[in-house]
Amino acid sequence: MYILKSDLMTYAMNSKGEVCSIINGYNGHEYCVKPGETFKLIYREGEQEERPVFGSLQTPEITADGNKLTVVYSKLISDNRELDIKLIFNYELSGDTLTTSYKVENNSDVLVAEVQFTPLSGIHSLNGNPKADYIMWPKTQGLKVAAPALSDLSTYAGYRKYERHDFLHTDLDCLYPGGASMQYYVLCNDDEGIYVGCHDKTHQTICMHVERNVKDNTLRIGINKYPFAEQGETYVSEPIVYTMLNGDWHLGAKIYRKWSESIGWKAPDSPEWAKQFQGWLRCIFRTHHGEYNWKYKDIPRLFDQAQEYGLNTIFVLEKTNKQICKKMARLCC
Asked: How far apart are CA 247 and CA 120, in angstroms?
């Protein structure tokens, strides 16, 4: 067994490259209830768009040096064949934070499309009660996923039933940028948790990924990346960090904000009109079945009425056609 240990976190890996211990040093809770797979690679070959390489079927070379761990896969096995693809995973523990990264060296004639990296796996619950756990997920303006080890995660990800492998696992996935507003999430309860952050200053497309094994109700948590490495190409990932929390998801939000500010992000300064904005008066001038409530000559009167209630904006809504656009143009001029 290979162990990285500090006062605030312990991370252990067996000779197969599986994670077998994750301990939150703040409270001593063991999160890993069974050895968990740390990666899956997807490659493309000809008309076969997605062929898997499962981490559990590979043979790694592992070296430990103080608070660092290096896991090397010189060749990969898929469908009983050997692929000339080299993977190097790096782990470094400092305090309560495990910082990870990896390199893909593709010397095969296939395209390495995706790496699903889940160094924290085999998690059933944080404190022994999976019903108390939840995931704070940055989809749109935020989503709270209750009891993830016991839930159909594909429901939250929006997958259609026929797209799921839900007899094996259900997945919670969200792309950043795109569906997610930020590139981090938190698995937690009200007292403790794990921060998962992709500290990628390039802001290339990633997928935040949580996978639930439906047979034993365990979770794999991590980040998917898309190297699209062709033959002869090398891909090096930006850091992905995992931090033990001695509190709820708000601590994770502070970690992400601190990192964001360190690479130059600043909260936008809202213009004065937005700070003073109270809303608008919505006026449907013409309904969808052709009836008129008001006409353009009524705008001054409607605006006066809006101002009586502290509003300085009218939202004009009407069926759009070329004639109406011409009327609006004449009014504005």
From this structure: 19
